[in-house]
Amino acid sequence: MPIILCGDWNGSKRGQVYKFLRSQGFVSSYDTAHQYSDSEEDAHKWVSHRNHRGNICGVDFIWLLNPDKCRKPLKTSWNEAVFGIMKYLLLQVASLPEENAFALLKADSSDDRITYSSFCQALCQLGMVHPDRVNSEEMEDLWSEVDHDGNGAVDYKEFQRCIWSPKCYNQEEEDDTEIDVAEGSIVTFEPNDETFGFTVKEAVLFPPEVEKGMWPENYSLSDHAPLTVVFSPVRMPCSPRTPQHP
Fold first, then answer.
1. Homologous superfamily assigned to 74-176
2. What is the model's pLDDT at position 193?
């Protein structure tokens, strides 16, 4: 069945929450209705919030996930989101360029590689380690992801691949990947298997000025612009899904 998520997501189209939901197959209903892409050019076409500092941004979304969408494994998307937050903290908060960020992560390592202990230490320094944030088990998962060759240390290329320039490497891997499907690992459907989903018929923000990226000074109803979306039911083929094992 389709899934709809609504609300103030406390982040724009450039944020990690947006990227995470997109990686899970969700689409922004408003952007779909107006044929806006994820590009930087379309990131400021509309706004929905004026914050306490007077800045305007688009943070209100009605997300749609149809059952015909294939999704990345949840753990993969979560790791990507955490690495994105790590890069933001290194670049924007600590004001560290790429080489200095790598130096922070490798700490006192003599062979110019990041060790697990220095990786954990850096996460602590960035304020990311907490029972309500990243716990010890999740740190091990993150380390397994960033230590791509599994040799117990992370070199500069692995650092770029997972943390600093993941888009470049992800595209290369998508182009070169051969899919190895183990028996019983994929749920398959017959070609005529169908389910129902939704298409976005209409999506409107109020007041109209916000649809042009402007916030009217005389609008005092709220600091958020209401978003209304009309969906139409539609039949669609089922999507094969990898089962989730406990």
1. EF-hand (1.10.238.10)
2. 73
